[in-house]
Amino acid sequence: MADTPAVATASTAPGPGLEIFSEAPAPEPRRPRVLLVGTAMAAGAAATGVLAMVALYVQLRDETIGSGRTWLPEDANVELTPGNMGLVSLVMSMVTVAWAVYALRNNDRVHAGLAILVSMTFGAAFITDTWYFWTQAGLVVGRDPQAVLIYAITGASVAMVAAGMIFLLVMAFRALGGQLTGRASEGVEAAALFWYVTIAVCAVVWYAIYVTK
Amino acid sequence: MTVTEAPRDVQDAAAVDIEPASPTGLAALVGSGDPRAIGNLFVGTSLLFLLVTAVTGLLVGFEQVDVEKADNILSSDTLSQVVTLHSISGLFLVVLPLLLGIATAVVPLQIGASTVAFPRASAAGYWSFLVGGGLLLASYALNGGPFGGDADGVALFIVAFVLVLVALCVATVSVVTTVVALRAPGMTLRRTPLFSWSMLVAGSIWLLTLPVLAGILVLSYVDLTWGTGFMGGANGLYSRIMWVFWQPTLYAFAIPALGIIADIVPVFAQRRHQRHAVAMFAIGLFGALSFGAWANVAVTGLFDEIDPQPTPWLYKGPWVAVSFIIVVPLLALLGLWALTLTTGKVRLGSPLLFALVAGTLLLVGVAGGVGTAIDQLDVDGTTWMTAQSYAVLLAALTAGFGALAYWGPKLYGRTLSEASTRLTATLLLAGTVVLVVPYAIAGLLDQPRLLDFNLDAIDGDVSTIETLNTVSAIGGVIVVLGLLLGILGVVGALIGRKGTSPGDDPWAGHTLEWATSSPPPVGNFASLPEITSEAPLYDARHAALRTTTEASA
Fold first, then answer.
1. Phi (first) and psi of residue B32, to 5 degrees
2. A108 DSSP assignment
3. Mean of the pLDDT values across residues A17-35?
4. Taking phi first (over 0 means left), then psi (-120 to 50 degrees means alpha), and beta for anything else, what does residue B74 get?
5. B540: buried, middle or exposed (CB in 10 Å: 19+, 13-18, 0-12)?
């Protein structure tokens, strides 16, 4: 989002053909950028909601094990593999999202679009991994109270990833449409910030659900 | 949807040349992205919901007049639902949206911005809040809500409540981002007016608190709809929610009240706020200490055979410490306001009266919290805690009415009737004291809160308890009268029939919102004065005065 008038920006970075802007007013003091700040707030709030559910899961698991019971039902099948695959997919997407930001800052919209597309593919891979886990977990919602927690928490992490993918997709369209440029790459940076927060949340969910079981 | 909003940036030439057709009537209202319109919608809707809170409060109060006789006015099942409707609507449909609405309209003016950071998100937040609030009330009508007998009604309640929480979070993000990212040149964070600062603090805490409640509600919904009922079903639902009405989380909803008082006091003392930086720190500390999601008791025991755990010492120690320490920033602020008033030339106006009442009630509420934390008083689970919640939330509500009286010229272009608002403030103070003090005394006599009511638990004479409850109910009536009077004044001003048309700066204000017309134009400011301190208009006024004095000398 271009928060600074083009004229003011041009006057701060004079180059060939920009002399006509020499009388332009000085740019406003640099402020934290609106979309980036708003995204940080929203991402923090979304992460808090999911982490609250994880905290509840950990508390109940601790109490149950403390009472001498086992946490998961005997026929449950919470394998580490789908969780690992999902998290590795997201970790790889960290690189591609950074690539998208880098490419756009260098006015390379094609590579920015390509990087976002690859990032979304990694996001889709995470969702597929989680879906596979749901089909294999052997937990019955109406029978096992743990199932409610596990499905709700992993479902919430999938929802965050899906929201991040939509955010990235919108920014990809805006970049390819010319609304985001090297000087105004805030939209993709904001989407990247949300994506990183999402990955951090997914990492916590991975540890709580798949590793500690 | 057509959206009309103030431009945040310089628009490109093509956009300026095209004159879009301006929507009128309902279309203009629905499509409006003007922060003043959105703020007024939030305020108006919260005052409408306040009627529900008031009626349910009166029912609850009079139900307790005769504690030995069950089903006085309401059956026991209905009573439980009415109690939860009273508390949930009071906080989430009245206090929070009222303060957010005021902030949405006032914060951009205070910091010299042309609009809020995300006007369309704010508008979406309001309309979602309206739909969510309506569905929440409808769920009770369908025998839903906590303790409801209809499973679909209970599920609808949870969905509606989550929608309300999401809507409030969206509006909060917009306000907080405005303070962080849209301050005018020269307005450093250190020079931010105290109401805007308090909204930054409060919004940050709300964004860390409301999603926790939403997460718990999502789990409750999944469990209620498909699960085994380990979250307690309809009867256990309220016990997952009620931590937000307890300290320290309760205090988070009163943080903007501190900012409102801090902006009103120096203007009516005609003196700069003393130790502005200390006041900022105190508000920040109060906010940080009021973050209480860590101390919630959302759920204990997944299986029936596991006994619920007592509050772990790990939580209990910090909880007690916070209950005591949070008094310090409040006392510091009260001291600074006293200093500002005693060293200034006080004009007694209705906003100042509201501010003084709100400050007093907040002190009572926070002091009540100290009492709750003292084990020897043994008031945990009694009406002492009810009294504390009333004191804090009515302090926030009173401050909200003070803000409506103070910023009325900017919100709806009129000042409220001085006599009417003074009477409102007096009724709120008197009513709250009469409501709260007997409840607190009854709590000391071991009267349990209504939802845990057990006649055998009462330590003292039952007739004494009934007398105290009767006095409390009368206090409730006085509060409701005060609120009705306040609502009438605001609604009259909103539709332009009550109050007087003020000048641009009727109070000789200190901060930027008084540098523009009343009500402000689209875009808020034609030009901004130089900002070299937290009170730019106060500086400009005194600089002009000095120049005049020197010239005449």
1. -70, 135
2. -
3. 55
4. beta
5. middle
Q: What would the two tokens of residue B31 be?
A: 């499509």
pLDDT tens digits for B160-212? 999 999 999 999 999 999 999 999 988 999 999 999 999 999 999 999 999 99
pLDDT band at A211 (very low <50, low <70, confident <90, very high): very high
Q: How many CB atoms lie within 10 A of CB A177?
A: 9
Can you read off the two tokens belonging to residue B409?
A: 């010229």
Q: Are B148 and B234 within 8 A, CB to CB?
A: yes
Cis, peptide link before residue B248, omega less than 30° from 0: yes
Q: Does B211 touch chain A (CB under 8 A)?
A: yes
Cα–Cα distance between B256 and B106 in angstroms, integer?
12
| Measured distance CA(B188)–CA(B176) in Å, rounded | 15
Q: Domain residue spans in chain A?
A: 35-211
Q: What are phi and psi of B415, to 5 degrees?
A: -95, 145
Backbone angles phi, psi at B523, to 5 degrees: 95, -10
Q: Residue B45 pLDDT > 90, yes or no?
A: yes
Whether the CB-CB separation of B388 and B16 falls below 8 Å is answered with: no
| B166 in reach of chain A (CB within 8 A) | no
* pLDDT beyond 70 at A94: yes
Q: Which of A129-133, B25-29, B41-45, B393-397 has the lowest mean pLDDT?
A: B25-29
- Report CA-CA distances (Å) from B247 to B261, B313, B371, B386, B410: 21, 17, 11, 11, 34
Rg (CA), chain A: 22
> Taking CB atoms and an 8 Å limit, are B208 and A45 in contact across chains?
yes
Nearest to A38 among B117, B211, B302 (CB): B117
Secondary structure class of B426 (helix, strand, coil): helix
| Measured distance CA(B517)–CA(A51) in Å, rounded | 46
- Burial of B229 from C-beta contacts in 10 A (0-12 / 13-18 / 19+): middle
Rounded CA gap, B393 and B479, in Å? 12
Tokens of A151: 């499905």
pLDDT greater than 50 at residue B333: yes
Structure tokens at B81: 């639902």
Chain B CB contacts of A50 under 8 Å are 215
What residues in B contact A43, CB-CB < 8 Å?
none
What is the token pair recorded at B47? 């005052």
pTM for the full model? 0.89
Q: Cβ distance B339 to B272 under 8 Å?
A: no
- Whole-number Å distance between alpha carbons of B53 and B89: 6
Looking at the domain that runs over A35-211, which CATH code has it been given? 1.20.120.80
Which whole number is the average pLDDT over B253-260? 97
DSSP notation for A12-75: HS--TT-GGGTTSPPPPPP---HHHHHHHHHHHHHHHHHHHHHHHHHHHHHHHHHTT--SS-TT
Query: Could you give the C-alpha distances from B164 to A160, A211, B85, B153, B248, in angstroms and in order?
Result: 19, 35, 14, 16, 22
- Residues within 8 A of A (CB atoms), B 448-477 only: none
CB contact under 8 A, B302 and A5: no
Number of Cα atoms under 13 Å in the Cβ half of residue B133: 26
Rounded to whole angstroms, what are the CA distances from A197 to A190, A203, A209, B211, B455?
11, 10, 18, 15, 51
